[in-house]
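Hi everyone, sorry if this is the wrong subforum. Our group has a chain we'd like a structural model of before ordering constructs, and none of us has done structure prediction before. Sequence below.
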Amino acid sequence: MRQTTSFFLALAATLFFSSPTLAQDPDALLSKLSDKAQTYKAYEIAYTSTLVDLKNDFELTQDGTVQIEGDRFHLNLGDYIIYCDGETVWTFEPEMNECYIDDTETMKEEGMDPSKIFTIWEDDFRREWMGRAEVAGRDCAHINLYAGTEKPFHTLQLFLDDKALEVVQIVMKGREGSDVTYTVKTFSTTLEVVPGMFTFPVDKHPGVDLIDNRI
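Answer:
Right subforum, don't worry. Here is the predicted structure as tokens:
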């Protein structure tokens, strides 16, 4: 489950930029993105992630979608479905019919805070323009974000199509020998928010085992 939650840290890098003329100036690019993020009300992201455990020679690829409004979100990973209403987090495992309950502060300690997808770089990241690279057949700008020692990763590598103003790939370099690559497939700001979508629907899962980890 810890690997699934790390998704948000990587996506916190960036999705769209306002002006390709800002190339080679990561501070200006991220500042523009922060301004643009303020115009988003609710949005949905579909992505593919690939985990590579370098120590144990293990690889796992999975698809996911996340719907976000402010500090609330609904993340569907198939094996896990995660809900957050801004204060409480429910992690539901359908196969086991179990739901773990945590508070948002626990997520933040683990480096996960979906509400900061477009602004995480404002929190003590050192930024560096790395040049250009071809990724998935596209010419991309490469920017690195370097994290402090309190994060479970040390670097976020951003590969951006600065002509199309889209992210192509994000790589999270973990401190424990695991790298996770995220590819954003679609991004939409037309999400329709419906009542209850950010809280776990206990009544729809008879017999669910609720495991409350809150202190």
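For your construct planning: The CA atoms of residues 16 and 166 lie 5 Å apart. The first strand starts at residue 43 and ends at 53.
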